[in-house]
Amino acid sequence: MPQSVIQLDRRSVGREVPPPPRHRLAEPATRQLAETAGSLCLDDAHLDDQGWLQQVRLAGATLPAVIRDPLVCFGYDSGPAGAMVLGGVPTDRATPATPTVAGSVRRVPSLASAALMLLAQQLGHPVAYRQEKSGALVQDVVPVPELRTDQSNAGAVELLMHTENAFHPYRPDYVLLLCVRADPAGEAGLRLSSVRRALPLLDDRTIATLRQPRFRTSPPRSFGELMEAQVGPVLHGAVEDPDLCVDFAVTKAVDAEATEALARLGRAMGEVTHEIKLQVGDLAVVDNRISVHGRTAYQPRFDGTDRWLHRVYVQVDLRRSRQLRPANGHVLDSLR
Ligand SMILES: O=C(O)CCC(=O)C(=O)O
Ligand SMILES: [Fe+2]
What we know:
With 336 residues, the chain is α+β, with helices and mostly antiparallel strands. The strands form 4 sheets. Strands 1, 2, 3, 4, 5, 7, 15, 17 and 18 form a 9-stranded mixed beta sheet that branches. A 4-stranded antiparallel beta sheet has the order 6-16-8-14. A 3-stranded antiparallel beta sheet has the order 10-9-13. It contains 7 helices and 18 strands. Helix content is 22%, strand content 21%. GO terms for molecular function: iron ion binding; oxidoreductase activity.
């Protein structure tokens, strides 16, 4: 199931935009992945432990092609949508109550978190940031009562479209979101939009402006005041197939023309946005270089039944961020 090589055809875009491709693991594949994940759920296992990650790496290489192929192909080319959904990922028979506290993370492997790590390693290397969710590799995306109006994964208001950690020079290449509990009201929608689909909707002058260092993206509070937001472009790389780096909540243009270009980009990204209501066992895989994501507003209950995603970040080339990772670990220290 190789992804089609992208073709930016100005005539074909802006009309009918197909949703991100959806693959589904068939029952035997789900069972096989559950078996391998289960074998990694040992009593003393720890998700952030180097030794455990090595076991995952080796076990991941033995998974059958039907499980690995969708991710391996996506790793080569994430296609026009820059995102996909893989259904049928095994989750635990008894998922505990959805956490309601800020900064909640997974430390001990479960069937779902071990399966997620096995799948993540098909794309590259899991990473985390020391200043975010205490540097845990598997993080909970859950609504938190005191943060419900926040522009963050813990909020319940509309979360504007963003490149994950757009301010960071070593931002993740991929963001993986595994649904272990669906929103009981069926309201919360993950939004996905790709620059490959939006670019043909933009005029040349807007594109040229977006490629210039006329934009500043500030870090979230959790990353502290240590970092001065640098000016940079919103589009970079190949002219016909650029990378995108923008957070519509915090990226600010430095002049009027750039402000207008950013607004045009926002409208174009909006035109090609898809909304996905994740169900239990659905893994959304987002190519963070090509697509942005966000979420609709929804009404959490904070009673243990709310929507719950496990999130993992992946970098393709771990070596690039070595200066921030003590002992060649998986957690990036603060930028200074
Ligand atoms: O809740 C969602 O669907 C997405 C939240 C988000 O942007 C994230 O976890 O990075
Ligand atoms: Fe995000």
